[in-house]
Amino acid sequence: MNPYANPKERKVGTQRPKISHLPKSIETRTRREREAEKQAVAAERRAIKKSARRHLKRQLLAELEEDEEDPGSAIRITERLGKANEEKECTVCFTLSPSARHNTIHGVKVIIVFFSAIVLVFASGAAPAQSPSERNPDVSNKALITKSTPGINEDAFRNQSVSAAIAALHKMADDYYAWRNENYPVRSSDAGLHTWDDRLTDYSPAKIAERAQHVHSLLGKVRAMKTDSWPKEERIDWILFRAQLENVDFGNRVLKFERTNPQVYVGECTNGIFSLLKKEYDTPRKRAVAATARLKLMPALLKQGLSNLQDPVKLYAQLAIQSARSIDPLLNNSLMALDLDLPPNEHDELIKVRDVALTALHNYADELEKRLTKMADFAPMGEANYNYYLKHVLLLPLDAAQVEMIGRVELARYRALEALLPDPKLADPDPKRSANVPPDQASFLKAYEGREQEMIKFMKEHNLVTMPDYLGPFQIRQLPEAFKPTSPGGFMNPPGVYDKDPTGFFFIPTYNPQSKNFYIRAAIEDPRPILGHEGIPGHFLQLSIANHLSDEIRRQHQDGVFVEGWALYGEEMLMRTGLYPNNSAAQGQILRLSRYRAARIGVDVSLHTGRWTFEQAVKYFMEAGGLDREAAEGEAAGAASDPHQKISYIIGKWQLMNLLGRYKDRQGENFRLGQFHDDLIKNGSLPVSIIEWILLDDPTAIQQATK
Fold first, then answer.
1. Can you tell me whether residue 4 is helix, strand or coil?
2. Is 493 helix (H, G, I), strand (E, B) or coil?
3. Is the peptide bond before 537 cis (omega within 30 degrees of 0)?
4. Would you list the domain boundaries of the chain?
């Protein structure tokens, strides 16, 4: 340091003043954290540039294929292709021509051979290298360059950033799915990804806040993208990815289930084990070890849950109490099927942690019960939030009032159609009318599965839908008691999006020929209507096809309105095409199933906008939907626990019926019902407003939903 420097000049090295562009109260990151963020941004930019170079190469190869007979053009393209490899900072991107997307392997080989030959000829005749000052530009072929080279899209030069932005969108989506899968390990296990089978989700307040901030920040970036100049297919991907993020962000901002819904923590425990049992994806021992690891984590998770529940809802707590006290068979019986030839120490540890986990679950239920008197009965989201979800997540061109009106219209229609039956009692399932009442649970499950082949044969004979070769078996299993409070009719468990095993399951309630439960009575009398909904052509077929999409954003999209709408549409479609005889119990069942699904809409809208209590919802299901008390309570509980899910059936079916009519008019004499079904479900589980844009080239509905 210069001893003769003035005082200000002496502040160097360790004495230099700390400079910050933000107050300490705002800028809390360390230098290392800021540097890490810079590196992450730089890595993302490098990935975008790499993708841009890849697109450029593909474009130039496509041009080369189209102009193989013009050696001059090929040489110029070769020079440009080599230059693209050398210039690592190249950011110019081209839109791929359609021909480039459909190159065959043979075609690519021809191009490569042709390309290599040109390079060799060009290199052998090249003059000695010159310095830049000695080179003279050759303009003899200028006319050829500007007039004869085909295939270069001039729009690519005007929209150089489009391809880079599209590549950035897909990279963000891929990164998000990887982040989500790791942060929600039980969800990943359920989807067939078993990388983190020894973990449970971290529900510490810091981690909850971190995840919410991550999604909200990513959503902001996606919203900010300017997509008006994007190709149609890429704009669809952008809309879908944005809706996926909106769904998670809505849960974090509005529902806040970690604070309000005790079912979150019971469900994590139940699904944490169930996802390891439902398929034999690995050896029993490895799955038992994973289960042991998860069981160890359950007491701490439940303790954290009780701490997080600052605004618990009484209805949710009551359902969580039922589930927690019903989990014993899952852990004592189902889980122990994995205890095959375990070493003594692993066996003892499994038993020990299982018993501790069961005690923690029962204590959790007991503690919730003590707090019930201080809990709010229910916490509706309100109409504004309800409408926001309809528009931004479900991409519906409807608001709550319009949704409710559709429900009323469909309820009135199916209620009247029941009355028009020669014997209206056919709509109310009665096992006494059945020629064969199964004697026990095993016979019941076997009889259920036995009708499936009959239905498949009918669909093939009438060319109603194409069944791909990769379709796996569809099996019927008994519903675990822990799931009964919110799924009294059972539930479908399709192959997961990451599943290697294509098998699907439908879990049905415990068999009881004397049961008053609607679903049990319906399954005994004629299981085909429900089987068609859950199996083929319903959920199992549709979701199996969706899992095989090549576009990852669309493969990951799970629009419940389409999924349930398709399954409900399939019930009536099979009736209209002749599977069930006129005036049969099956036909009556179809009408009753549609009737109470229509009643679900009034319950869902009225509960979550704050107009009805839970008891009013139960009574409405009994009076308007024609359900018994047990089924009505389960339906109302399901509606309260999963906002908007209960509107999916009738609204989705209504949209599909509308689309069917328009598709038929567009096809004219070429219309075939089976082709409509194939064209429909090959797109995956996308909102109908998007599918209308794809099939009819009509963006009106999606424009109304997103304006």
1. coil
2. strand
3. yes
4. 41-121, 387-706
Q: Is 2 helix (H, G, I), strand (E, B) or coil?
A: coil
Rounded to whole angstroms, the Cα distance separating 155 from 532 reads 49
Q: Provide the sign of the torsion angle of the four alpha carbons 546, 660, 565, 394, taken in this order.
A: positive
H or E, element range at 573: helix 560-576
Report which secondary-structure segment, H or E, holds 506. Answer: strand 504-508
Question: What pLDDT shows up at residue 514?
Answer: 86
Closest by CA to 369, choosing from 318, 323, 324, is: 318
Q: What is the mean pLDDT of residues 515-537?
A: 91
The per-residue pLDDT for 388 is 98
pLDDT for position 127: 39
Residue 166, CA atoms < 13 Å, CB-side half-sphere: 23
Question: Which tokens sit at 305?
Answer: 């849950």
Task: Write the single-letter amino acid at 516.
Answer: K
DSSP run (H or E) holding 225: none
User: Residue with structure tokens 């999916």?
Assistant: 648
Q: Which residue in 327, 339, 333, 277 sits closest to 302, CA to CA?
A: 327
Is the pLDDT at 457 greater than 50? The verdict is yes
What gap in Å lies between CA 292 and CA 281, rounded to an integer?
A: 17
Question: Using an 8 Å Cβ cutoff, are 298 and 363 in contact?
Answer: no
- Are the beta carbons of 156 and 94 closer than 8 angstroms? yes
Whether the predicted pLDDT of 278 surpasses 60 = yes
Residue with tokens 């439960």: 517
Residue 478, Cβ neighbours under 10 Å: how many?
Answer: 17
Determine the average pLDDT of the residues in 51-74: 64
**Residues in the chain, total:** 707
- At residue 96, the 3 state secondary structure works out as coil
Choose among 635, 568, 647, 589: nearest CA to 407.
Answer: 647
User: From the centroid of its chain, how far is CA 252?
Assistant: 17
Q: Which amino acid is at 294?
A: R
b/e string for 554-576 if b means 16 or more Cβ within 10 A? bbbbebbbbbbbbbbbbbbbbbe
**Token output for 253:** 């901002």
Cβ partners under 8 Å of residue 56, min gap 6: 84, 90, 92, 93, 94
Cβ atoms 519, 490 nearer than 8 A: yes
266: nearest Cα among 348, 323, 188, 209: 323
Q: DSSP label at 407? A: H
Question: Which residue do the tokens 């990164």 mark?
Answer: 175
Which residues does 376 contact at the CB level (< 8 Å), separation at least 6?
A: 311, 312, 313, 314
pLDDT in tens, 563-604: 999 999 999 999 999 999 988 999 999 999 999 999 999 999
Enumerate the β-bridge partners of residue 558.
685
Q: Which neighbouring-strand residues pair with 493?
A: 505
Neighbours of 474 (CB within 10 A): 25
Mean pLDDT of the chain: 85
Q: Tell me which of 41-50, 74-83, 108-117, 250-259 is least confident.
A: 108-117
Please say whether the beta carbons of 536 and 455 come within 8 A: yes
The token pair at 632 is 């009505």
Strands, sheet with 504-508, edge to edge from the N-terminal-most edge strand: 474-478, 504-508, 491-493
